[in-house]
Amino acid sequence: xxxxxxxxxxxxxRLLLSAIALSAFSGCAVLPASSNAGADESITANVQSSLAExxxxxxxxxxxxxxxxxxxxxVSTGVELQDAEAAALATQKVSRVVNSISVDSx
Length: 106
Hints:
The protein is 48% helix and 20% strand. It is of the alpha+beta class.
């Protein structure tokens, strides 16, 4: 009987750890399919070009789906975060910006 309880306890622990591991990846965005990939690629290129003109905004990830720009990555300051969003919004044919950029706390 003790062996059965021990096995059940280990199984419960494994399930709990699996659930925790899966929840850690829940922040990974899965973007919908684009209905106009060519236009989205052009928007992405234009946003990346605009970001490259600003110090501290190089290396951010830009993805576009149906005119919605998704920004991610890390910047040094809150001002840089706001600048990245403003630069993306100022780009032609951008309908909305989803800003997932984080500010480095170091």
